[in-house]
Amino acid sequence: MTVPAPRTVAQGAPRHPTEEELLRRVTALHEDPRATDHGLAAPLGRLDDPLLLAELGRLLETVEAARLSPAPARRARPLRIAVAATFTADNVVPLLRATLLAAGVDTEIHTCPYGRLTLELADPRSGLAAFRPDAVLCLLDAGAVLPRDWDPSRPEELADVLGERTATLTDAAAGFAARGGTAVLLHTVPLPRPDRRSVISLRGAAALGRIWRGANTALLTAGETCDGVYTTDLEAVLTDSAGPVRDERQYRFGRMAWTPSTELAYAREAAAFCRAVAGLGRKVLVLDLDNTLWGGVLGDDGPTGIELGTLYPGDCYTDLQHRALALRRQGVLLAVCSKNERELVDSVLDGHPDMVLRPDDFVAVLADWERKDAHIAALAEELGLTQDAFVFADDSAFECGMVGETLPQVAVAHLDGDPSDHSRTILDPAHFVQLGTTDTDTDRTGLYRDRRERGRLRGTHASAEDYLRDLDIRVLIRPADAFTLPRLIQLELRTNQFNLTGRSHGEALTRRMADSPDHLVLAVEVTDRFGAEGVVGGVWLDRRPDRWVVRNLVLSCRVLSRGVEQAVLQHVADRARAADASLLEAHFTPTGRNTPAAGLYPSAGFAPTAAAGDTHRYLTHPDSLATLAPDWITLDAKEAPHHV
Question: What's this model's pTM, rounded to 2 decimal places?
Answer without folding.
Answer: 0.83
